């Protein structure tokens, strides 16, 4: 990653156009007592092919709203999401072909894979269903399902099991395999490793690194965990109350943050010799 | 604490007759609490030989827990102590037995489970408590703070009702104004701004961090000797987590409360606690003063946990996953339970009955190959470890630490001798495997 500017992307490197371009994405919600809550205010970034961008923030920062706008689960008030040079329509796609095409642009993996997996289908059936919907058939589909299972480290036994019989880590592997089945350009992961045991989380992080290298899929990694983001992304966006407070190469954002808020976030991460009171004092003057 | 999570809920809010005046301060342990500020206040020898210091608030000795139908015991040979003013971390992945161990302090066990061993809280044999004595113990001596404060609070009742109930549980005597006054005091103590107004609010009006403060105020209302925090900050934002951790430190300093801090996060435990115990498959695998865990973890599982946790440290190598998965109750182990995932496993490990091997200075680790990696072998294990490791040690003594030859050097974790995929950093920016 050679970019040093505020925008994450390959422009500085003068390379290929970004696979994902997000421009001035905004969303507000009405508040019960009147007025509006700004969940996302003119968010913009780009991600190159095979690149990885982290969106970090605390609860209420708007990071999940941004993730949901990317995949179309939340309709933005304004702004555009462009994949491979094609702007995604703000309205849900009409018609099967348009829906499938849209699904091949961006896929999402959630914190709890249960929400996206059909409990009645075995792992293999789940992959086959997605593959067939997207045009694969017969032996080719079967073969691809096997390959996907292998790619995410699930054996034939796990492939034959339904989601409830899988461990949390295995379910997340299956959710990633299903997302990859349609060969998306972009994979959005919303706290996708947050609920996993530490040793399993590390396995999934490694898997995502491999997947990225092998398939060239671009990752948008939404997380509250700065250490995880440091390990899996090249560019980072720090959000707070719907706005981007800092944005740039992960290494500089996390090693030499320029805003008090990012500094406060970093100070709050436990480490050897860490003292919570000192971390709070460090944060106090600048963060109301 | 009203135990919403226990398998056997504590009795209803029945103010015990003739209860003491539970002003938290009046409950202070008679013995002088350990000076709370000093981190390693009473680092206790692992083999539990150490005596002296204040009487432990929690003293678990050789706790075992069998569940009919499970392939292995839920807990085996768990021993730990918490002294007044001490923060002891209990770390493990899911199914490690850390929460089960903590609940033993309340004599809360899964249905049908048979405990063996000893559990003493402030000198009382908890396993022998029955009826009213057990209810009083659960209501007043020990308080538990869980991950989700909303589960501990009735969503339709006001914060004030919750605290009033807690105070009644503790036998707080006084008219309504006095109860209210004490409730306001408690909320102020846990750092909630505008406490009088909070009394009228309902849980949904407060943030997660504020609710956790309310729950802690409710814990303090009964003036407990021992506080159990079970993933109490895991669901909070990092800055809120720091606030709650700071509050818990203040509580133990001002009340001499002992704190058992249960978490999946080894980095957090090692940064926050005085001593840390690491559990795996229902057993303790390592017990160390907290700083030692960062600088010199000894059990292969502890090392694996540290290596697979991402950090902000620029110099840190990439995360290295531990292969396999944490064991479930269906997995039985004839020997060391970590064998299947351990980079240093040998055939003998599958037959080795784990036991604590004392470490020089302080602590223990339950690994039969420990002596081999001792920098200068001599004083480490004594006869126990020596005999155990002898077969395998054979000439490896002290060499592998140099790390020159990674092939047999399993516990020398810097060697990239992993059986799973290449240990390169996940980010993929620094290829080249050298770790
Ligand atoms: S198969 Fe999966 S990815 Fe394709 S449209 Fe259906 S849900 Fe979306
Ligand atoms: S070296 Fe052997 S005894 Fe030690 S942790 Fe590994 S498997 Fe267990």
From TrEMBL, chain A:
Does the keyword field hold Ubl conjugation? Answer: no
The catalysed reaction is: glutathione(out) + ATP + H2O = glutathione(in) + ADP + phosphate + H(+)
Q: Which InterPro entries match?
A: AAA+_ATPase, ABC_transp_ATP-bind, ABC_transporter-like_ATP-bd, ABC_transporter-like_CS, Oligopep_ABC_C, P-loop_NTPase
Compartments, record wording: Cell inner membrane
Q: Which UniProt keywords apply?
A: ATP-binding, Cell inner membrane, Cell membrane, Hydrolase, Membrane, Nucleotide-binding, Repeat, Translocase, Transport
> What SUPFAM superfamilies does the record tag this protein with?
P-loop containing nucleoside triphosphate hydrolases
* Molecular function GO terms recorded: ATP binding; ATP hydrolysis activity
Its BP terms in the Gene Ontology are:
peptide transport; transmembrane transport
Q: Which Pfam families match?
A: ABC_tran (PF00005), oligo_HPY (PF08352)
Q: Where is the ABC transporter domain?
A: 20-266
Q: What is this protein's function?
A: Part of the ABC transporter complex GsiABCD involved in glutathione import. Responsible for energy coupling to the transport system.
Family designation:
Belongs to the ABC transporter superfamily. Glutathione importer (TC 3.A.1.5.11) family.
Subunit structure and binding partners: The complex is composed of two ATP-binding proteins (GsiA), two transmembrane proteins (GsiC and GsiD) and a solute-binding protein (GsiB).
By what name is this protein known? Glutathione import ATP-binding protein GsiA
Which species does this protein come from? Streptomyces cacaoi
UniProtKB/TrEMBL annotation, chain B:
Which GO terms fall under molecular function for this chain's record?
ATP binding; ATP hydrolysis activity
Q: Name one Pfam family in it.
A: ABC_tran
Question: What keywords is this UniProt entry annotated with?
Answer: ATP-binding, Cell membrane, Membrane, Nucleotide-binding, Transport
Record-level GO BP terms: peptide transport
Keyword Transcription regulation attributed = no
Cellular localisation: Cell membrane
Task: Pinpoint the ABC transporter domain residues.
Answer: 58-306
Compositionally skewed regions (Low complexity) per UniProt: 9-50, 385-397, 404-416
| Topological category with respect to the lipid bilayer | Peripheral membrane protein
Q: Establish whether keyword Cell membrane is in the entry.
A: yes
Task: List the transmembrane segments.
Answer: none
Task: Return the protein name.
Answer: ABC transporter domain-containing protein
Q: Read off the lineage from the record.
A: Bacteria, Bacillati, Actinomycetota, Actinomycetes, Kitasatosporales
Q: Where is this region: Disordered?
A: 1-50, 375-435
């Amino acid at each position: 990653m050679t970019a040093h500017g505020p925008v994450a992307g390959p422009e500085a490197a003068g390379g290929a156009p970004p696979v994902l371009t997000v421009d001035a994405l905004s969303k507000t919600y009405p508040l019960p007592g009147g007025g509006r809550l700004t969940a996302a205010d003119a968010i913009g970034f780009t991600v190159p092919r095979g690149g990885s961008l982290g969106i970090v923030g605390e609860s209420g920062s708007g990071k999940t709203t941004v993730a949901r706008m990317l995949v179309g689960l939340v309709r933005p008030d304004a702004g555009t999401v462009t994949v491979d040079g094609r702007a995604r329509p703000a309205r849900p796609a009409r018609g099967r072909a348009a829906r499938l095409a849209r699904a091949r642009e961006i896929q999402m993996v959630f914190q709890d894979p249960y929400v996206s997996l059909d409990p009645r289908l075995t792992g293999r059936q789940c992959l086959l269903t997605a593959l067939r919907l997207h045009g694969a058939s017969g032996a080719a589909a079967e073969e691809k399902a096997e390959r996907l299972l292998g790619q995410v480290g699930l054996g034939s036994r796990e492939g034959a099991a339904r989601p409830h019989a899988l461990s949390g880590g295995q379910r997340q592997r299956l959710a990633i395999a299903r997302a990859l089945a349609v060969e998306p350009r972009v994979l959005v992961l919303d706290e996708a490793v947050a609920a996993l045991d530490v040793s399993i989380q590390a396995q999934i992080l490694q898997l995502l690194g491999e997947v990225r290298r092998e398939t060239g899929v671009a990752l948008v990694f939404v997380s509250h965990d700065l250490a995880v983001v440091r390990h899996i992304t090249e560019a980072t966006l720090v959000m707070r109350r719907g706005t981007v407070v800092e944005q740039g190469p992960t290494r500089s954002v996390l090693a030499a943050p320029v805003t008090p808020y990012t500094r406060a976030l970093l100070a709050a991460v436990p480490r050897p010799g860490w003292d919570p009171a000192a971390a709070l004092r460090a944060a106090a003057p600048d963060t109301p | 604490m009203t135990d919403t999570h226990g398998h056997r809920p504590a009795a209803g809010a029945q103010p015990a007759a003739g209860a003491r005046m539970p002003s938290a301060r009046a409950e202070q342990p008679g013995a002088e609490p350990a000076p709370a500020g000093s981190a390693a206040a009473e680092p206790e020898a692992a083999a539990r030989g150490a005596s002296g210091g204040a009487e432990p608030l929690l003293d678990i000795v050789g706790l075992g827990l069998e569940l009919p139908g499970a392939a292995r015991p839920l807990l085996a040979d768990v021993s730990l102590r918490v002294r007044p003013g001490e923060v002891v971390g209990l770390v493990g992945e899911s199914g490690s037995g850390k929460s089960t161990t903590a609940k033993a302090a309340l004599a809360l066990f899964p249905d049908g489970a048979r405990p063996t061993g000893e559990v003493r809280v402030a000198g009382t044999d908890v396993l022998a408590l029955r009826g009213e004595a057990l209810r009083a113990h659960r209501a007043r001596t020990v308080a538990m703070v869980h991950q989700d404060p909303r589960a501990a609070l009735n969503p339709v009742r006001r914060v004030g009702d919750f605290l009033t109930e807690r105070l009644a549980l503790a036998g707080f005597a006084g008219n309504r104004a006095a109860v209210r006054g004490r409730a306001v005091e408690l909320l102020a103590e846990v750092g909630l701004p505008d406490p009088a107004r909070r009394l009228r609010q309902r849980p949904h009006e407060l943030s997660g961090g504020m609710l956790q403060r309310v729950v802690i105020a409710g814990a303090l209302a009964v003036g407990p000797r021992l506080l159990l925090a079970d993933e109490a900050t895991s669901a909070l934002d990092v800055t809120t987590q720091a606030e709650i951790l700071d509050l818990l430190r203040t509580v133990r300093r001002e009340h001499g409360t002992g704190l058992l801090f249960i978490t999946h996060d080894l980095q957090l435990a090692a940064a926050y606690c005085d001593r840390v115990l690491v559990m795996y498959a229902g057993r303790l695998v390592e017990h160390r003063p907290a700083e030692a865990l960062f600088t010199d973890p000894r059990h292969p599982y502890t090392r694996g946990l540290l290596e697979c946790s991402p950090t902000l440290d620029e110099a840190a190598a990439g995360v290295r996953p531990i292969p396999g998965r944490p064991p479930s109750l269906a997995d039985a182990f004839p020997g060391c339970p970590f064998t299947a995932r351990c980079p240093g496993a040998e055939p003998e490990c599958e037959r080795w009955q784990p036991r604590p091997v004392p470490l020089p200075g302080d602590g223990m680790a339950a690994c039969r190959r420990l002596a081999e990696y001792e920098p200068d072998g001599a004083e480490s294990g004594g006869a126990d470890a020596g005999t155990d490791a002898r077969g395998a040690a054979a000439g490896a003594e002290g060499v592998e630490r140099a790390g020159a030859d990674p092939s047999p050097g399993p516990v020398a974790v810097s060697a990239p001798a992993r059986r799973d995929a290449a240990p390169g950093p996940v980010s993929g920016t620094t290829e080249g495997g050298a770790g």
